[in-house]
């Protein structure tokens, strides 16, 4: 396949000038038929970057993939459609290994009721620009499309591939996982993880992580005892079996307060953290809590630990994300203790916090309305300080007209979160406060930050990419409109 170097162009700014940035548009629908894109996700191995999303350019919504062999400088000249069938495909997720790329999504092809089933496709990372995909397969054993299967999330390591989702086959949603131990060639029958009566209580929004040695961890929201709690199940044999599920938001009576939005991360050694926001201290303001394990899930703290340190239940601390590298847990969340939301960060070792929480966004506290932080960590772990860390968030500081526009900012660390050498830097290169950006996802390889998002700068929702080295910042480059052209590239590496 041929690739071309793409320049993202914003017209109509600065009189006769346009702004050309290193934001790269990767969805590449024809200008005359440019549908909205949604659900952008990214993974990266070495210099290779893979981005997926869904759009309806062919009449029905499909999952598309674009790829780069050089860290995101150049991309395929046309993306690949990787879902098939006549149904609508949506909400993709992606995982990369050294040999493969795996994509999962929701798909309505299997029945007249337009219920969603979970599908997966395996791609082969080849050479000389070859990207070869198997035919998509259904994972949820619902050939007639009689029930909804939603929220698929995927993890892959070595020859292990695991997909988890919420499944309505029994009534209320249950949590299922499908496992492959041969790099996606074959998947075992899906296994139900929540242990209450099938379909009796709402269990949803699962998240999954895996480590070497066959450790797999799934966490989800579960209402079996009344209000929503956080439950998890773990495997130490590569997902061939799972032990009994267990509650993680311990420390208050089960079902007495809502716990939402679990996020899970695990490093190569099996140190794992699960984070969520929790209303146990009062409905007026939620707090962020964690539980953790050092052995892949065999044992956990006997009581959940609160992360934010302002007055309990007084302000909203919500939507946490978590990453783990070299035994260190990294927690981020949005917090309105200063009025508007700020992005806060804290790190933990062995479940104990090493520092006071800190804000990562610039401007006056509470003035930027910084929301939806996500964190990624990467490390060879010769020592704990080898790891790099990136936190990205959506920021409304320049939305002077209250149009709902936002920009993307980031903070970076090269010593596993001990210090942040780069704070409050722009990831996207669009004129501040001139468009909305949603569905943000990032990958980190050493000190290379790679981000994708859905962007409304052209009037429709399109998928953009920006890559940079930690410490660098996206910058706008004004040029004459007549000089703006795409340029040819080489072959896409696989």
Any descriptors?
mainly beta, disordered N terminus, 494 residues, 5-stranded antiparallel β-sheet
Please provide a written account of the structure.
The chain has 494 residues and is mainly beta. 0% of the residues lie in helices and 49% in strands. It has strands at residues 2-5, 8-10, 17-21, 24-25, 38-45, 48-55, 62-68, 75-76, 80-81, 89-96, 100-107, 117-125, 131-133, 137-138, 149-157, 160-167, 174-180, 191-192, 203-211, 215-222, 229-235, 246-247, 259-266, 272-278, 287-293, 305-306, 317-325, 328-338, 340-349, 352-353, 358-359, 370-378, 388-395, 407-413, 422-426, 437-445, 448-455, 462-469, 477-480, 487-491. The strands form 10 sheets. Strands 10, 11, 12, 13 and 14 form a 5-stranded antiparallel sheet that branches. Strands 27, 28, 29, 30 and 31 form a 5-stranded antiparallel sheet that branches. A 4-stranded antiparallel sheet has the order 4-38-37-36, with no helix packed on it. Strand 20 and strand 21 (229-235) form a beta hairpin. The protein is globular, with a radius of gyration of 22 Å. The termini are close together. The model is unreliable at 1-21 and 477-494 (pLDDT under 50).
Spans with pLDDT under 50 lasting ≥5 residues?
1-21, 477-494
* Biggest sheet features: 5 strands, antiparallel
Tertiary shape: globular
Q: What is the end-to-end distance?
A: 10 Å
Average per-residue pLDDT, rounded, comes to: 89
Count of separate DSSP helical elements: 0
How many DSSP-defined strands?
Answer: 40
Strand content: over 45%
Structural class: mainly beta
Rg, Å, rounded: 22 Å
What fraction, in percent, of the residue positions are helical?
under 10%
């Amino acid at each position: 396949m041929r690739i071309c170097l793409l320049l993202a162009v914003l017209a109509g700014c600065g009189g006769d000038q346009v702004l050309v940035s290193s934001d790269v548009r990767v969805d590449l629908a024809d200008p005359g038929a440019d549908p909205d894109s949604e659900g952008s996700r990214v993974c990266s191995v070495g210099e290779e970057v893979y981005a997926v999303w869904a759009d309806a350019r062919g009449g029905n919504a499909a999952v598309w993939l674009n790829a780069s062999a050089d860290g995101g400088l150049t991309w395929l000249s046309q993306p690949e459609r990787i879902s098939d069938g006549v149904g609508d495909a949506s909400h993709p997720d992606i995982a990369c290994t050294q040999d493969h790329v795996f994509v999962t999504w929701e798909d309505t092809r299997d029945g007249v009721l337009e219920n969603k089933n979970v599908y997966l496709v395996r791609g082969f990372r080849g050479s000389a620009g070859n990207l070869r995909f198997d035919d998509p397969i259904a994972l949820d054993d619902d050939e007639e499309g009689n029930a909804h299967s939603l929220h698929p999330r995927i993890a892959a390591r070595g020859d292990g591939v695991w997909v988890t989702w919420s499944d309505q086959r029994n009534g209320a949603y249950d949590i299922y996982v499908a496992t492959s131990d041969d790099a996606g060639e074959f998947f075992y029958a899906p296994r139900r993880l929540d242990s209450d009566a099938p379909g009796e209580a709402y269990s949803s929004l699962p998240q999954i992580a895996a480590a070497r040695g066959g450790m797999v961890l799934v966490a989800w929201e579960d209402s079996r005892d009344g209000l929503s709690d956080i439950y998890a199940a773990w495997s130490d044999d590569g997902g061939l079996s799972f032990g009994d599920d267990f509650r993680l938001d311990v420390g208050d009576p089960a079902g007495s307060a809502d716990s939402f939005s679990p996020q899970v991360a695990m490093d190569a050694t099996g140190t794992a953290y699960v984070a969520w926001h929790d209303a146990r201290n009062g409905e007026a303001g939620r707090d962020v809590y964690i539980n953790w394990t050092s052995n892949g899930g065999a044992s956990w703290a006997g009581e959940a630990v609160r992360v934010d340190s302002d007055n309990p239940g007084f302000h909203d601390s919500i939507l946490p994300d978590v990453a783990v590298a070299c035994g260190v847990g990294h927690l981020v969340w949005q917090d309105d203790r200063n009025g508007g939301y700020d992005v806060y960060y804290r790190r933990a070792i062995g479940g104990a916090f090493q520092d006071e929480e800190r804000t990562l966004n610039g401007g006056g506290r509470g003035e930027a309305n910084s929301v939806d932080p996500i964190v990624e960590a990467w490390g060879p772990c010769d020592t704990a300080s080898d790891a790099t860390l990136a936190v990205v968030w959506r920021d409304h500081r320049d939305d002077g007209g209250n149009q709902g526009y936002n920009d993307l900012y980031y903070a970076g660390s090269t010593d596993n979160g001990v210090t942040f050498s780069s704070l409050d830097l722009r990831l996207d290169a669009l004129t501040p406060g001139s468009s909305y950006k949603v569905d943000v996802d990032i990958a980190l390889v050493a000190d290379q930050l790679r981000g994708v998002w859905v962007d409304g700068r052209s009037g429709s929702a399109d998928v953009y990419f920006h890559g940079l080295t930690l410490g660098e910042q996206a910058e706008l480059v004004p040029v004459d409109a007549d000089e703006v052209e795409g340029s040819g590239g080489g072959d896409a590496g696989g």
